[in-house]
TrEMBL record:
Organism expressing this protein natively: Chloropicon roscoffensis
EC identifiers of the protein: 2.7.4.3
Swiss-Prot/TrEMBL catalytic activity: AMP + ATP = 2 ADP
Assigned protein family: Belongs to the adenylate kinase family.
Pfam families documented for this protein: ADK
Keyword Lipoprotein: no
SUPFAM superfamilies assigned to the protein according to its UniProt record, in alphabetical order: P-loop containing nucleoside triphosphate hydrolases
Name this protein carries in UniProt: adenylate kinase
Domain of life: Eukaryota
Length: 337
């Protein structure tokens, strides 16, 4: 892990219109079950094809994702297409142990935090764990600080050891307290659960993680590259309140098998106007280089989890209010026991 890597709301109520393939506003309490029923229905005449690191819906015969793990389930939700290897389900309690993957700027941190809060499990960013150790001045923190200061990289053993300790403490802290809830017909137990945000980063780290944790879902968020670049270039931060905003107003019409993309700006509040600045590393050259590095490093990692039937590709095509009502039931549906 490099120095850059280390130091670098309630959901909107809605309904899913299966005829028009879009989200409509409706009263609270009924939208979750309606969405779940809509998500459970297959849509004929949809094929999956690879576009970069994602998939898009095209009007042709149903085809299967290239995998040896069994038949593929295709679940188009408006302009979202979710693909994963089908697996058996049982009515037992499920503890969510989830990994969120995705390129820089896709929003995985935002969605990981909100889903973690909804499930009642810790949101774990390894970089935060390391920073906390350094700030606390622990022996490990001092070792990490010395390593980074000298231009070195924090070893996988140190990172995984720190993560293992945190997860063990977190599991012990949850104890035997009741933390179960029924979400979309599945009983979820938050005790011992977690969401790992952007970690592991390599197939080697994934193998090391599997020695002490059994991940039961890997959610791979993706976004069209041209949109991702525009989104990254629109990021703004307020140096006074540390608020993060995005001034990009993005729209792409549905064409050539690609879904419509609507991403309104995250407006800067009145108190921060005139104060926000662009991050120094949010230039097109830097963003393109960052995406190329991510692509090169993520392919073996995605293959590792795809071969084990754990990877779910989820395309982002809208803002938070549009994405969360679709992403949330997808997470519950795809969790393994």
């Amino acid at each position: 892990m490099s120095l850059t890597e280390i130091f670098a709301e309630p959901l909107k109520t809605c309904n899913f219109d299966s005829k028009q393939q879009k989200i409509l506003a409706m009263p609270a309490m009924s939208w979750w079950s309606t969405l779940a029923r809509a998500a459970g229905r297959g849509v004929e005449g949809v094929a999956s094809r690879t576009i970069g690191h994602g998939t898009a819906a095209t009007p042709s015969a149903r085809t299967a994702w290239p995998t040896t793990q069994g038949p593929t389930v295709l679940l188009p939700l408006r302009s979202h297409l979710v693909t994963r290897s089908a697996s058996s389900r049982s009515p037992s309690v499920t503890v969510p142990k989830i990994v969120f993957l995705g390129p820089p700027g896709v929003g995985k941190g935002t969605y990981a935090k909100r889903i973690a809060k909804w499930l009642g499990v810790p949101h774990v960013a390894v970089g935060d764990l390391i920073r906390n150790e350094v700030k606390a001045g622990t022996p490990l923190g001092k070792e990490v600080e010395n390593t980074v200061s000298s231009g070195g990289l924090v070893s996988d053993d140190v990172v995984l050891g720190l993560l293992k300790g945190f997860l063990e403490e977190s599991g012990e802290a949850s104890g035997s307290a009741s933390a179960t809830q029924v979400l979309h017909g599945k009983t979820i137990d938050a005790s011992g659960g977690y969401i790992l945000d952007g970690f592991p980063r390599t197939a080697k780290q994934a193998e090391m993680l599997s020695e002490f944790q059994n991940v039961n879902l890997v959610l791979n968020l993706y976004l069209r590259e041209d949109v991702l670049i525009e989104k990254c270039l629109g990021r703004r931060i307020c140096p006074e309140c540390n608020g993060n905003y995005n001034v990009a107003d993005i729209y792409r019409p549905a064409e050539n098998g690609k879904p419509e993309i609507v991403m309104p700006p995250l407006s800067v509040p009145e108190g921060c106007e005139g104060k926000v600045v662009t991050r120094k590393d949010d230039t097109e050259e830097v963003v393109l280089n960052r995406l190329e590095i991510y692509r090169r490093e993520s392919e073996p990692l995605e293959a590792y989890y795809r071969e084990r039937g754990l990877l779910v590709d989820f395309e982002i095509t809208g803002g938070i209010d549009h994405t969360l009502p679709v992403l949330s039931p997808t997470v519950i549906r795809e969790l393994r026991q």
